[in-house]
Specification:
Elements (H helix, E strand, L loop, with lengths): L3 E2 H11 L4 E4 L6 H6 L7 E4 L3 H15 L3 E6 H17 L4 E7 L15 H5 L5 E4 L6 H12 L7 E6 H5 L1 E2 L17 H11 L5 E5 L2 H5 L2 H11 L2 E4 L14 E4 L5 H8 L4 E5 L21 E5 L13 E4 L2 H15 L2 H31 L7 H11 L5 E4 L5 H6 L9 E3 L8 H11 L5 E6 H4 L5 H7 L5 E6 L4 H14 L19 H7 L4 E4 L5 H10 L4 E6 L3
Parallel strand pairs: 2-3, 2-4, 4-5, 5-7, 6-7, 9-10, 9-12, 10-11, 12-13, 13-14, 15-16, 15-17, 17-18, 18-20, 19-20
Antiparallel strand pairs: 1-8
Helix pairs in contact: 1-6, 3-4, 3-16, 8-12, 10-12, 14-21
Length: 554
């Protein structure tokens, strides 16, 4: 291979790996390889005005493409600005390759401007963080970064690129990254043991996370839930692992307090965990999560998730898709006709309960129709106007139940929910999803508080004419904090009282429509029910980016 600067070789490597977009915010120490991008028209640099928006864009793109996304941050200050959203990406298992520039190896002793221990900064929020110290290993390190990011459990990887290393010569060949085949099949005797442990259950429980989605095991999960007659509860669930309308799907376990989750988990007499760990709350229960004597089986491609916090009776390091169908078949063969009858009966009961709850909610909406505008009003009309294959990016948080009662997440790849706890992914995440699927309608939901973390992403939408629709659910508060502190009062025996004034966002009021227009994105404010339908029609017909400031819950 002919020798050339490592900054050129790096871009050749991205070309070999089929990279079409690089998300970033440029800085001086990266200017060498950014200048070379003009010679690589296959790679489009998508500029964002703040690093949290850069990471959010890459996160949405990676989730929508199911491939590693490349992003560039600027030295210690840029990485620092992106840390919160990188935490989101790590907890959400987004495969990102994060490139961070620095001035050079020659300046390590100088403690120069913007210098920092970048690897140490990134280690808590990445799967792997490293620094290239020899130009002859630049491509080797980058290929490893792509491989690590795209190996379960997926997640962000950071590579520090000193400017003087990139300016030096390398003759490394640019060849495609070698990815791993992870469809590991459990041994037949392991499947039989799992079925033996689970077959006697009368109150079976499936605790499910996004490992099911990543392996494409939705059909196998549904089959297992139906054969076993098991409730399916989500934990670390932000993709469509089972259609929301499936009778076995009971919702997501509590994200705040383990005591809430334990009311579900401790009631089961057998538990199968798949594609997640037990359990990802903010204040998890330390004991009493599972009933005494209840067998617990855990299937995952992430060895670290199995028995991470609580013992299990059987841990299976295998692909969920290759495992769940086999366990379902083994259970099907073991269950008696009476057990099959009771399993089917449970599913019928849950289906009837869901239908009744939906009817009750619709009737409640009708009674409240004369009152303030609700998220459910908007969701109902949006469902009527959206094309069938639209992609929805959900950071609506407290408004999500009302919105998605009418837009149930049933199809994999058409619904992405925020995960990880870092606010601000709704707008840039939707932009990333739209770049990944330019021919589809994409709608991103966020809140008034969350939107202000990355509102700069609207400028990126306008600059590149990325035609996503954005909905800011504007209730004038950090409403999730209202809900969380109310739960906290209950756990501490504190009488309910006025919510803290600092949760209020109305002094001064933010004019989101005007702010959006100032960043180049047309917008309307909707605060009455009769404004909903025309606003949605205008947004969907615009052909470009469009924002709706949806005033609800005031």
């Amino acid at each position: 291979m002919a020798s050339r600067p490592a900054r050129v070789a790096m871009l050749e490597q991205f070309k070999a790996d089929g990279v079409t977009h690089m998300f970033g915010n440029p800085g001086t120490v990266e200017q060498g390889f950014l200048d070379e991008l003009r010679n690589f028209p296959e790679i489009e640099y998508v500029l964002a005005l703040q690093e949290a928006a850069v990471v959010g864009l890459a996160d949405g793109y990676a989730r929508a493409t199911r491939r590693p996304a490349v992003l560039q941050l600027h030295s210690g200050v840029g990485l620092g600005n992106g840390i919160g959203m990188l935490y989101q990406a790590k907890r959400g298992h987004a495969p990102l390759v994060v490139l961070v520039g620095e001035s050079g190896l020659a300046y390590d002793a100088m403690e120069a401007q913007m210098a920092a221990d970048l690897v140490a900064m990134a280690e808590p929020v990445t799967k792997w963080a490293t620094r290239v110290v020899d130009p002859r290993s630049t491509l080797r390190v980058l290929r490893r970064a792509f491989k690590v990011a795209a190996t379960p459990p997926y997640g962000p990887v950071m590579v520090v690129l000193p400017a003087d290393v990139l300016d030096a010569e390398t003759d490394e060949p640019a060849v495609p990254t070698s990815y791993l085949e992870t469809a590991a099949v459990p041994a037949p005797e392991t499947v039989e043991r799992a079925a033996d442990l689970l077959a006697g259950a009368e109150r079976p429980l499936l605790i499910v996370g996004d490992g099911v989605h990543f392996s494409g095991a939705q059909a196998e999960l549904a089959r297992l839930a139906e054969v076993w007659g098991a409730e399916v509860w989500g934990a670390d669930w932000a993709e469509v692992n089972l259609p929301a309308d499936h009778p076995a799907y009971r919702g997501q376990l509590g994200h705040m307090f383990g005591t809430t989750s334990s009311r579900v988990t401790a009631a089961a007499d057998a538990v199968l965990i798949v594609g997640t760990y037990a359990l990802p709350e903010v204040f998890p229960a330390l004991d009493g999560v599972f009933a005494p004597g209840a067998p617990v089986v855990h299937v995952d491609l992430d060895s670290g998730a199995i028995a991470k916090n609580f013992p299990v009776d059987l841990g299976i390091l295998a692909d969920p898709r290759q495992s769940l169908g086999r366990i379902a078949a083994a259970l099907d063969a073991r269950l008696t006709p009476e057990q099959h009858r009771r399993a089917a009966g449970r599913l019928r009961t849950w289906g009837a309960e869901k239908a009744a709850a939906r009817t009750e909610a619709d009737e409640r909406d009708a009674r409240e129709a004369a009152g303030a505008l609700t998220a459910a009003d908007f969701g109902r009309e949006l469902a009527a106007q959206l094309p069938a294959d639209a992609i929805l990016f959900d950071e609506a948080l407290t408004c999500s139940p009302g919105l998605f009662r009418h837009l149930p997440p049933n199809t994999p790849g058409e619904w992405f929910q925020t995960r990880g706890g870092s606010l601000g992914v709704g707008i840039p995440g939707a932009l990333g999803a739209k770049l990944a699927h330019p021919g589809k309608t994409v709608v991103g939901f966020t809140g008034d508080g969350g939107s202000m973390y990355t509102i700069q992403a609207l400028w990126t939408a306008a600059r590149y004419d990325i035609g996503a629709v954005f909905v800011i659910c504007n209730n004038g508060r950090y409403k999730l904090l209202d809900d969380n502190i109310a739960q906290y009062w209950g756990t501490q025996g504190i009488e309910p009282h006025a919510f803290p004034e600092l949760f209020d966002l109305t002094r001064p009021e933010i004019d989101f429509a005007a702010l959006s227009r100032s960043l180049g994105v047309p917008a309307v404010r909707v605060d009455k029910p009769d404004q909903v339908a025309p606003a949605i029609a205008e947004a969907l017909a615009s052909g470009g980016p469009f924002l709706i400031d949806l005033v609800v819950g005031r």
